Amino acid sequence: QVQLVESGGGLVQPGGSLRLSCAASGSIRSIITMGWFRQAPGKQRELVAVIRSGGSTNYADSVKGRFTISRDNGKNTVILQMNSLNPEDTAVYYCNALIVVQLVPNNYWGQGTQVTVSS
After folding, report:
1. How far apart are CA 105 and CA 83, in angstroms?
2. Strands 57-59 and 46-52
3. Tens digit of pLDDT for each residue in 30-55?
4. How many alpha carbons fall within 13 Å on the CB side of residue 103?
5. CB count, 10 Å around CB of 94?
């Protein structure tokens, strides 16, 4: 079995910063991608950022220049550094990973962590 455990999140004022971390554990053969999605109330879940095993990244247009995703392959961990946060960033953030278990890649989700940007 594979688990994604998230940490970080919380309440921050506009303009502030937060750091989210997600660690994958279990019977992992290899990790293809790790990333973050978010879902605000009444909205669909959307991609925030993703990083591939080779280090290439993609970001949602709304977070480019403010968020940075990084990965520690040795620790199976992905970090999302969020700067210049604004109220529109308020959402539940979910860690996501495409992980090869034995010979088959599977999609895994974390439990979600709340990020609230408010004064």
Report:
1. 32
2. antiparallel
3. 999 999 999 999 999 999 999 999 99
4. 0
5. 21
Instruction: Output the six-digit token pair for 80.
Output: 């999302």
Model confidence pLDDT, tens digit, residues 52-110: 999 999 999 999 999 999 998 888 999 999 999 999 999 999 999 999 998 889 999 99
- Rounded distance between C-alpha atoms, residue 97 and residue 100, angstroms: 10
Kindly state the tokens that stand for 94.
Answer: 């979910």
d(CA 5, CA 96): 10
DSSP state of 42: T
Question: Exposed/middle/buried for 96, CB within 10 Å: 0-12, 13-18, 19+?
Answer: buried
Sorted by sequence, the CB contacts under 8 Å of residue 86 that are 6+ apart come out as 14, 15, 117
* Cα dihedral across residues 7, 112, 81, 12: positive or negative: negative
- Evaluated on CA atoms 46, 48, 109, 104, the torsion sign reads positive
> Which amino acid is present at 13?
Q
